[in-house]
Amino acid sequence: MTRPRPPKRTLDSYTIKGISKTIKPGDCVLMRAPDARRQPYVAKVEGIEEAGRRRVRVRVRWYYRPEESIGGRRRFHGAKEVFLSDHYDVQSADTIEGKCVVHSFKDYTKLDAVGSEDFFCRFEYLSKTGTFIPDRIAVFCKCEMPYNPDDLMIQCESCSDWYHPTCINMTVEEAKKLEHFFCQSCGPENGKNTQNTQNGSGQSEHKGASKRRRR
Protein backbone atom coordinates (compact mmCIF):
# COMPACT_ATOMS: atom_id res chain seq x y z
CA MET A 1 0.00 0.00 0.00
CA THR A 2 1.27 3.42 -0.93
CA ARG A 3 1.91 5.60 2.08
CA PRO A 4 -0.25 8.73 1.93
CA ARG A 5 1.55 12.02 1.54
CA PRO A 6 1.52 14.21 4.63
CA PRO A 7 -0.77 17.22 4.31
CA LYS A 8 0.77 20.54 3.34
CA ARG A 9 0.71 23.26 5.96
CA THR A 10 0.82 26.96 5.14
CA LEU A 11 3.43 28.86 7.13
CA ASP A 12 3.41 32.53 8.06
CA SER A 13 7.20 32.78 8.05
CA TYR A 14 10.45 30.90 7.62
CA THR A 15 13.90 31.40 9.14
CA ILE A 16 16.69 31.13 6.59
CA LYS A 17 19.20 28.51 7.59
CA GLY A 18 22.64 29.75 8.56
CA ILE A 19 21.83 33.45 8.84
CA SER A 20 18.79 33.47 11.15
CA LYS A 21 16.83 35.96 9.09
CA THR A 22 13.09 35.54 8.85
CA ILE A 23 11.12 35.89 5.64
CA LYS A 24 7.40 36.26 5.08
CA PRO A 25 5.17 36.30 2.00
CA GLY A 26 5.81 39.56 0.17
CA ASP A 27 9.52 39.63 1.01
CA CYS A 28 12.20 39.46 -1.66
CA VAL A 29 14.99 36.91 -1.46
CA LEU A 30 18.21 35.81 -3.14
CA MET A 31 18.11 32.17 -4.26
CA ARG A 32 21.10 30.03 -5.10
CA ALA A 33 21.59 29.33 -8.81
CA PRO A 34 22.35 25.74 -9.92
CA ASP A 35 25.59 27.02 -11.44
CA ALA A 36 27.74 28.37 -8.61
CA ARG A 37 29.43 30.76 -11.04
CA ARG A 38 26.18 32.63 -11.64
CA GLN A 39 24.72 35.40 -9.52
CA PRO A 40 21.91 34.43 -7.13
CA TYR A 41 18.41 34.66 -8.54
CA VAL A 42 16.11 37.40 -7.23
CA ALA A 43 12.56 36.37 -6.33
CA LYS A 44 9.47 37.61 -4.51
CA VAL A 45 8.01 35.16 -1.98
CA GLU A 46 4.33 34.51 -2.71
CA GLY A 47 3.76 31.74 -0.16
CA ILE A 48 5.48 29.35 2.24
CA GLU A 49 4.44 25.77 3.00
CA GLU A 50 5.67 22.78 4.96
CA ALA A 51 5.33 19.52 3.04
CA GLY A 52 6.21 17.08 5.82
CA ARG A 53 9.48 15.90 7.35
CA ARG A 54 10.30 19.54 7.94
CA ARG A 55 10.65 20.16 4.22
CA VAL A 56 9.74 23.75 3.52
CA ARG A 57 8.98 25.08 0.07
CA VAL A 58 8.39 28.60 -1.15
CA ARG A 59 6.23 29.71 -4.02
CA VAL A 60 8.06 32.53 -5.75
CA ARG A 61 7.61 35.02 -8.54
CA TRP A 62 10.91 35.51 -10.32
CA TYR A 63 12.61 38.78 -11.11
CA TYR A 64 14.63 38.68 -14.32
CA ARG A 65 17.89 40.53 -14.80
CA PRO A 66 18.18 42.42 -18.12
CA GLU A 67 20.57 39.83 -19.58
CA GLU A 68 18.00 37.10 -18.86
CA SER A 69 15.33 38.81 -20.94
CA ILE A 70 14.73 38.67 -24.68
CA GLY A 71 16.81 41.49 -26.14
CA GLY A 72 19.32 41.40 -23.29
CA ARG A 73 20.92 44.23 -21.37
CA ARG A 74 20.77 47.70 -22.88
CA ARG A 75 22.65 50.89 -22.15
CA PHE A 76 19.98 52.39 -19.92
CA HIS A 77 19.62 49.34 -17.68
CA GLY A 78 21.11 49.90 -14.25
CA ALA A 79 23.53 47.42 -12.68
CA LYS A 80 20.95 46.64 -9.96
CA GLU A 81 17.89 46.65 -12.23
CA VAL A 82 15.51 43.68 -12.30
CA PHE A 83 12.13 43.06 -13.97
CA LEU A 84 9.15 41.55 -12.15
CA SER A 85 8.16 38.65 -14.39
CA ASP A 86 5.06 36.51 -14.91
CA HIS A 87 7.14 33.40 -14.14
CA TYR A 88 6.07 31.60 -10.96
CA ASP A 89 7.77 28.57 -9.45
CA VAL A 90 8.00 26.39 -6.32
CA GLN A 91 11.46 25.98 -4.81
CA SER A 92 13.01 24.39 -1.75
CA ALA A 93 13.53 26.93 1.00
CA ASP A 94 17.05 25.51 1.39
CA THR A 95 18.07 27.37 -1.78
CA ILE A 96 17.42 30.78 -0.17
CA GLU A 97 20.71 32.55 0.50
CA GLY A 98 19.39 35.75 2.04
CA LYS A 99 16.93 38.60 1.96
CA CYS A 100 17.05 41.55 -0.41
CA VAL A 101 15.02 44.66 -1.15
CA VAL A 102 13.59 45.51 -4.56
CA HIS A 103 12.82 49.22 -4.50
CA SER A 104 10.62 51.21 -6.80
CA PHE A 105 12.69 53.19 -9.30
CA LYS A 106 11.82 56.46 -7.56
CA ASP A 107 12.82 55.18 -4.11
CA TYR A 108 16.04 53.66 -5.44
CA THR A 109 17.21 56.97 -6.90
CA LYS A 110 16.75 58.57 -3.47
CA LEU A 111 19.00 56.11 -1.63
CA ASP A 112 22.05 57.67 0.00
CA ALA A 113 23.93 54.39 -0.29
CA VAL A 114 23.31 51.29 -2.39
CA GLY A 115 24.10 47.97 -0.73
CA SER A 116 24.54 44.52 -2.17
CA GLU A 117 20.98 43.68 -1.09
CA ASP A 118 19.42 46.66 -2.92
CA PHE A 119 17.76 46.31 -6.34
CA PHE A 120 15.18 48.32 -8.25
CA CYS A 121 12.32 47.53 -10.61
CA ARG A 122 10.53 49.82 -13.07
CA PHE A 123 9.17 47.22 -15.53
CA GLU A 124 7.06 44.10 -15.44
CA TYR A 125 8.30 41.51 -17.91
CA LEU A 126 6.12 39.03 -19.79
CA SER A 127 8.53 36.15 -20.27
CA LYS A 128 6.56 34.29 -22.97
CA THR A 129 6.36 37.27 -25.31
CA GLY A 130 9.42 39.25 -24.23
CA THR A 131 7.33 42.41 -23.77
CA PHE A 132 7.43 44.99 -21.00
CA ILE A 133 4.87 46.91 -18.96
CA PRO A 134 4.96 49.85 -19.42
CA ASP A 135 6.21 49.63 -22.98
CA ARG A 136 7.38 53.25 -22.98
CA ILE A 137 9.04 55.49 -20.40
CA ALA A 138 10.50 59.00 -20.41
CA VAL A 139 13.73 59.56 -22.33
CA PHE A 140 16.42 62.18 -21.80
CA CYS A 141 19.45 63.77 -23.43
CA LYS A 142 20.35 64.06 -27.11
CA CYS A 143 20.62 60.27 -27.24
CA GLU A 144 16.95 59.94 -26.18
CA MET A 145 17.62 57.15 -23.72
CA PRO A 146 15.77 56.33 -20.48
CA TYR A 147 17.53 57.31 -17.28
CA ASN A 148 20.18 54.93 -15.93
CA PRO A 149 20.72 55.79 -12.25
CA ASP A 150 24.33 54.58 -12.48
CA ASP A 151 25.20 57.36 -14.94
CA LEU A 152 25.89 60.97 -14.10
CA MET A 153 23.63 63.51 -15.83
CA ILE A 154 23.58 67.30 -15.68
CA GLN A 155 20.58 69.59 -16.04
CA CYS A 156 20.28 72.67 -18.22
CA GLU A 157 19.35 75.66 -16.05
CA SER A 158 17.16 77.09 -18.79
CA CYS A 159 15.09 74.24 -20.28
CA SER A 160 15.59 71.78 -17.38
CA ASP A 161 16.49 68.92 -19.74
CA TRP A 162 19.08 66.37 -18.60
CA TYR A 163 22.24 65.37 -20.50
CA HIS A 164 24.99 62.76 -20.31
CA PRO A 165 28.39 64.50 -20.27
CA THR A 166 29.71 62.27 -23.08
CA CYS A 167 26.77 63.25 -25.30
CA ILE A 168 27.77 66.93 -25.09
CA ASN A 169 31.52 66.36 -25.57
CA MET A 170 32.35 66.65 -21.90
CA THR A 171 34.09 64.33 -19.46
CA VAL A 172 32.44 63.23 -16.22
CA GLU A 173 35.17 65.02 -14.28
CA GLU A 174 34.45 68.28 -16.13
CA ALA A 175 30.71 67.89 -15.53
CA LYS A 176 31.21 67.44 -11.80
CA LYS A 177 33.06 70.77 -11.62
CA LEU A 178 30.33 72.78 -13.38
CA GLU A 179 28.57 75.47 -11.39
CA HIS A 180 26.29 76.47 -14.29
CA PHE A 181 25.22 74.60 -17.39
CA PHE A 182 23.19 75.67 -20.43
CA CYS A 183 22.64 73.23 -23.26
CA GLN A 184 23.48 74.04 -26.87
CA SER A 185 19.86 74.96 -27.65
CA CYS A 186 19.53 77.35 -24.76
CA GLY A 187 23.02 78.89 -24.83
CA PRO A 188 22.87 80.92 -28.05
CA GLU A 189 19.25 81.89 -27.44
CA ASN A 190 20.05 83.36 -24.02
CA GLY A 191 23.52 84.59 -24.79
CA LYS A 192 24.93 82.07 -22.33
CA ASN A 193 27.34 79.20 -22.68
CA THR A 194 28.31 76.19 -20.62
CA GLN A 195 30.57 77.67 -17.99
CA ASN A 196 32.65 76.74 -15.00
CA THR A 197 32.75 79.78 -12.75
CA GLN A 198 34.30 80.13 -9.31
CA ASN A 199 31.87 82.72 -7.98
CA GLY A 200 28.63 81.20 -9.22
CA SER A 201 25.66 80.23 -7.08
CA GLY A 202 26.18 76.51 -7.71
CA GLN A 203 22.73 75.99 -9.22
CA SER A 204 23.71 73.37 -11.79
CA GLU A 205 22.00 70.10 -10.86
CA HIS A 206 23.47 66.62 -11.19
CA LYS A 207 21.82 63.27 -10.91
CA GLY A 208 23.14 59.77 -11.09
CA ALA A 209 26.00 57.80 -9.63
CA SER A 210 27.82 60.84 -8.26
CA LYS A 211 25.08 61.41 -5.70
CA ARG A 212 25.35 57.94 -4.20
CA ARG A 213 28.15 55.86 -2.87
CA ARG A 214 28.14 52.08 -3.06
CA ARG A 215 28.98 50.10 0.03
Blueprint of the fold:
Layout: E1 9-10, E2 14-15, E3 22-23, E4 28-31, E5 41-50, E6 56-64, E7 83-92, E8 96-104, H1 105-109, E9 113-114, E10 118-121, E11 124-126, E12 131-133, E13 153-155, E14 162-163, H2 172-177, H3 186-190, E15 206-207, E16 213-214
Parallel strand pairs: 7-11, 8-10, 9-16
Antiparallel strand pairs: 1-5, 2-3, 4-5, 4-8, 5-6, 6-7, 11-12, 13-14, 13-15
Structural descriptors:
215 residues, mainly beta, 16 strands, disordered C terminus
Task: Give a structural overview.
The structure is a single chain. The chain is mostly beta strands and 215 residues long. It has helices at 105-109, 172-177, 186-190, and strands spanning 9-10, 14-15, 22-23, 28-31, 41-50, 56-64, 83-92, 96-104, 113-114, 118-121, 124-126, 131-133, 153-155, 162-163, 206-207, 213-214. A hairpin with a 4-residue loop joins strand 11 and strand 12 (131-133). The protein is elongated. The N and C termini lie far apart (58 Å). Residues 138-189 form the PHD-type domain. This is Chromatin remodeling protein EBS-like isoform X1.
Q: Figure out the total of helices.
A: 3
Largest sheet: 9 strands, mixed
Gyration radius, rounded: 23 Å
Mean residue pLDDT: 86
Low-confidence stretches: 190-203, 210-215
Question: Which H/E pattern describes the elements?
Answer: EEEEEEEEHEEEEEEHHEE
Domain PHD-type: 138-189
Region (Disordered): 192-215
Protein name: Chromatin remodeling protein EBS-like isoform X1
Keywords: Metal-binding, Zinc, Zinc-finger
Short description:
By secondary structure, this protein is mainly β. The chain has three helices and 16 strands.
